[in-house]
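Hey team,

Filing this mostly as a record. A colleague (T.K.) asked me to run one chain through the structure pipeline before their review meeting, and I want the input and output archived in the tracker in case anyone asks later how it was produced. No errors, nothing strange. Just documentation.

Input sequence:
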Amino acid sequence: MSPWGEFFYRVASFMRVGALSGVVVIGGLVVAYLLRNGWAAFLLPACIEMGGLLAVGFLLHLVVVARNRSVRP
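Output structure:
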């Protein structure tokens, strides 16, 4: 694997963890707010942002899986 490929793999691995952690944090904050105050006006934007982060995390996970399959036959 080229140095740039290895670099991109490491960045994708790190960003995958960050994106999925963001989903957990935003989801937890939304649930905590709903339990405390009921429905909120920011619920839809928060869910959209959480869905976007989840999609990014999933795509980055595919990069990691594809790299692992290409390195290990």
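Quick notes for T.K.: The helical segments are 3-37, 43-71. The mean pLDDT is 77.
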